[in-house]
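Need tokens for this chain, all 201 residues.
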Amino acid sequence: MDDNSIFKRFWKWIMNHFFKTFLILFLIQVLIVLLGQNIPFSIIVISFLILTTYVFVFLITHIGMNIKKLLHHELKFSEIIIVYISSVTFIVLLFSILYLTMTFIGAGYIKYGSCIDNIQITRSLIESDPLHVDSIVQYPYFSAITFFSVGFGDICPMGLSKLIAMLNALIGNAFTVLILAIAITNYSTNLGNSRKDKKEK
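Here are the structure tokens for all 201 residues:
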């Protein structure tokens, strides 16, 4: 039997049973953290990255599926809205994971108040900063306001999180333009079809 087909089937099963696999990986992560005194920090980081990579790939797969649906020009307006909302939710969660990962590995973080440039970001700096965001709810909030280019200014990115914020905003703008273009194309296609049907009658 072809190894490639075995891998594809295994991956399909994993993606179809996302919540079961996620729960297993999450429980492994919790056990590793609970036994953290006896386990090297590198193992904790690797297990966290495996968990976040899995969720990351799951979200990207579903965003891709939604974009394929959007590019199918026979969707009704209500279906476009549903696909748009679910896609935005997935993208916001995706960037939330990226911000959280930057904080976890000490490459960047998000903080309340103004940003300071030209400082070396480390885990100890993040932990010692009293303004660093430590509430998990704030990550999707920051991801969403960046996606929609609202920019309240209450939270700002530091270190590599700045690059992620730029990408977050770029995708937000590009995705909104894509949806608008698809909605206009669908409308004009449906209008053309209805006029053609009237002429034939």
